[in-house]
UniProtKB/TrEMBL annotation:
SUPFAM superfamilies, sorted: Glyoxalase/Bleomycin resistance protein/Dihydroxybiphenyl dioxygenase
Residue ranges of every copy of the VOC domain listed in the record: 9-131
Source taxonomy: Bacteria, Pseudomonadati, Pseudomonadota, Alphaproteobacteria, Hyphomicrobiales
PROSITE patterns: VOC (PS51819)
Pfam families associated with the record: Glyoxalase
Protein name: VOC domain-containing protein
Superkingdom: Bacteria
InterPro entries assigned: Glyas_Bleomycin-R_OHBP_Dase (IPR029068), Glyas_Fos-R_dOase_dom (IPR004360), VOC_core (IPR037523)
Cross-referenced CDD domains: VOC_like
Organism per entry: Kaistia hirudinis
Gene3D superfamilies assigned to the protein according to its UniProt record, in alphabetical order: 2,3-Dihydroxybiphenyl 1,2-Dioxygenase, domain 1
Length: 151
């Protein structure tokens, strides 16, 4: 933790899933490799500096001491940015072949980019997007402009 508060960092995104093995198989069908730290009860995927974890939904809710979420919209989406519109189309097609449900086919969007959405077996929404106003570094990480300096 930074001396003045919480450091601006995200290390792990944990998705509460109905069946860890089924969800792990889906993400592996996308071509992702589970870490050797994965177990029957949890799966970990290195996403280039951020880890995606899959954990039983009820156990995750119990761990956080909250009621388990329903199957409705969770007000969260995950995003996978690529370098072209064609890559968006290819990624969505691959996700669908891997068992995803296409929620929104790719199209030009109001903010000037191109994107579509798929859902994993538990309904977690993934946006696949090409944003012509940002770039990706050599490892595929989104590059944001630096913060504005206070005057």
């Amino acid at each position: 933790m930074a001396a003045t508060g919480l450091a601006p960092r995200l290390n792990i995104v944990t998705l509460g899933v109905a069946n860890v093995q089924k969800s792990r198989a889906f993400y592996e069908a996308l071509g992702w490799r589970a870490s050797s730290a994965s177990r029957d009860s949890i799966a970990f995927f290195d996403l280039g500096g951020v880890v995606l974890a899959l954990f039983n939904r009820e156990n995750l809710a119990d761990d956080a001491t909250v009621a388990p979420a329903g199957d409705g919209f969770r007000a969260v989406t995950l995003a996978h940015n690529v370098e072209s519109d064609a890559e968006v189309d290819a990624a969505l097609a691959h996700a669908e072949r891997s068992g995803a449900r296409i929620v929104k086919p790719a199209s030009k969007v109001f903010w000037g980019g191109y994107s579509g959405y798929f859902s994993d077996p538990d309904g977690h929404l993934w946006e696949v997007a090409h944003n012509p106003f940002t770039s990706l570094d050599g490892q595929g990480r989104l590059q944001l402009p630096p913060p504005e300096l206070a005057s």
